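This section describes the prediction task in plain terms. A model, or a person checking by hand, is given the sequence of a single protein chain and must write out its three-dimensional structure as a string of tokens. No templates, partner chains or ligands are provided. The sample shown here is typical of the held-out split.
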Amino acid sequence: MALSKTAPTRITIAAGNEPMLVDRAVADTFAAIRAIDSSTQRVLISASSDDGGALIRDAMSPNLFGDATVLIVTGIDSSSEEVDAALRGFIAEPAEHAWLIVTHPGGVKGKNLLDALRSAGGTEIDCKALKKGKATIEFLNREVRLHKRSMTSEAITALYDSIGHDLRLLVGAISQLCSDVEHDPISIEDINSYFIGVADVAGYTISDAVWDKRSVEALRSLRWAMEASDNVGVPTVLAMASGLRTLVGVGGMAGASDLDVAKTIGVPPWKVKTLRQQWAKWSGDQRRLAAAAVALADADGAVKGGVKIGSSLDAEQKLLALERLVITTSAGTRTLN
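The expected answer:
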């Protein structure tokens, strides 16, 4: 998505329906033009506005001070007749002091105008929404490299799993980490430290470690979460319960394709491989898996106040119950005396 240091073409098209990428394309293009002439002014116009055509023609007219103008026209798929005519006028006779940036979300609406802008030499920047999973992970890795930094694959995955498919939040999180964390590579410990309480990083990180039987990491992540937040118990138990349901779902679809498994249990296809690896660690002793389900049910009652009337636990007892759950489950044992 990065633009070259040379001057952009007179027309730039930000095409796609990912708001963050569209905003970045517009901002980067304007910055590149502004770097050539710091006096450049920006005019923002909605293509569907009633006065859009008049505003475009006005921006194309030479101004008193001779300042350059960047004309940003958003949503040309919904252009009014006046805006369509004004943009075609720009194509026919580009104003020497003006630059044009347009946005189009994709689809067939406004395609005739879009093709005309392309034929006029417009530079198109791909802003289509990224597919979930592998494509987004690759984008996040590139984003880290733009900061001239590195991040472990576990950290990238934990960030993505917890924040979800919100590109703006993900990019902001990476920017914050790259700014504040001095060492490389940025690790899953840094993710836990910075984003516990902002998203459900802790619960899903703990859950992944538990069902992968990484006891030390599971307990370490839990204790970090306890230090950072007073609301650890319920999110952690919920995340572990979700992980257990997913794990059992994968185990029940042996021989199915990754795509079929993903559709059935509701996870991205790229995550199925990891889940199969987790299942392989549990499938040999499903009695312990059943014991883990019982332990989860007990812990759910404990962290919510108590299973029976009058059995409510205090804060420290709830945390002890949570530690007991994480230790016994991740270690594959049934009880902890």
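For orientation: Residues 305 and 313 are 6 Å apart (CA to CA).
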